[in-house]
Amino acid sequence: MKTPAQPGSSLYDSDVFRMACRQFDLAADLMGLDPDVRERTKLPKRCLTVTVPVKHDDGRVRVYEGYRVQHHLSLGPTKGGIRFHPGVTIGEVAALAMWMSWKCAIAGLPYGGAKGGVSVDPGALSRRELEGLSRRYMQEIIPFVGPNIDVPAPDMGTNEQVMAWMMDTYSNQVGNSVPAVVTGKPLSVGGSEGRREATGRGVAYLVKRQLEAMGIDPRDATVAIQGFGNVGSEAALALREYGARIVAISDVSGGFHNPRGLDLDSALAHVAAHRGLAGWRGGDAVSNEALLELPCTVLVPAALERVITPANAGKLRCRVLAEAANGPTTNDADRILEERGDIEIIPDILCNSGGVVVSYFEWVQDLQSLFWARAEVLEKLCSILDRAREAVEGQRRRLGCSRRLAALTLGIGRVAEAKASRGLFP
């Protein structure tokens, strides 16, 4: 059954949500998904919009708008990050929640997808203002979260400290410590070893496996990374461990390129001291847009959505496109890359799943009050990533489709199967 590519709900209508829905429709058509579960599987189960008043250091009270979208709860509680960024919209949050559903299903985790965010520039806030924002946002969404309902995690603009404030806010409300209500926390309050680097390290591991499958020694590979935040920097460090040469990095202020390789330790020290790459002298200046078109073995978009478009898809000069960001490649660009046929894509819902896998480990450890060593966490992570990768490759061979469609059909199929098995509550 063919269904037109449309959002299905005007509430979430946006470029990024239409993109996620188009991906779903292509996969559902390929699968021949039962019409009775098709729209139920696509559309988010519930959404929440909240106002978040914060008293600033100058005495003014400013009100921010926040969201939380829970895509489905058929496999267990929902799981997903909280993003503090000026561009956050409910449509973006809904798309990210949808992608998180497929990501969890591919990895075999007992979760549905969720996402949250506040439209704010966290860099413009003092520490006290950021704490106030974090605590008030959690206070507003408390009726909709919990260890068996919805478990938030850090995302763009949030970190371990923000999660600790949110966990403390929830715990004070219910009257006892509940570390399992969020993941990505500091070790001192129930965080997991390996969680901070999990997404980036997972990206690097899957890149290594893809290069090996192509007969390329990682020590012969060059890597360009757009986005030198937590995910991009951790991916860079892990790829360096595998022997790859990092030739370009960037953040919102711009980037740097050196075909002989960049000094990552110097770059990280500069970022720690100056909160960004601006002013670093480790290579030739390059814009974020130009970085995507540099010659390299592996290109890692690790920043925002929709950066690879029809305007630049034909100009990419990489062998592997590892999507560390969510939704970095538009649908039209995806078609161009597929027609080219010379770039292997590791799709986002597989490539960046390391973070939610180790978030799952943290949640399990918190529920059991039994914690694992870092080596054990990373070993378990690689095992799950290998299993997910093999499942996607098997689906690709069975359906004769792209790796992205294989991943989507696998994730969507598992969610749809669960909904069909549970039936429709009257």
Quick recap:
The protein is an alpha/beta fold and 426 residues long.
Write the H/E string, N to C. HHEEEHEHEHHEHEEHEHEEHEHHHH
Question: What would the CATH topology of the largest domain be?
Answer: Rossmann fold
Number of strands: 12
| Annotated CATH homologous superfamily of the largest domain | Leucine Dehydrogenase, chain A, domain 1
| Largest beta-sheet details | 7 strands, mixed
Tell me, what's the shape?
Answer: globular
* Number of self-contained structural domains: 2
Second-tier CATH architecture of the largest domain: 3-Layer(aba) Sandwich
What is the C-level CATH assignment of the largest domain?
Alpha Beta
Approximately what portion of the residues adopt beta-strand conformation? 15-25%
Mean pLDDT: 95
Number of helices: 14
Kindly provide the radius of gyration, computed on alpha-carbon positions and rounded to a whole number of angstroms. 21 Å
- Provide the helix percentage: 40-55%
Secondary structure class reads alpha/beta
Strand order of the largest sheet: 9-8-7-6-10-11-12
End-to-end Cα distance, whole Å, is: 26 Å
> Runs with pLDDT <50, length 5+?
1-6
Q: What does this entry look like structurally?
A:
There is one protein chain. Helices cover 45% and strands 16% of the residues. With 426 residues, the protein is α/β, with parallel strands linked by helices. The protein has two domains: 10-179, Leucine Dehydrogenase, chain A, domain 1 (Rossmann fold); 198-346, Rossmann fold, CATH 3.40.50. The two termini are 26 Å apart.
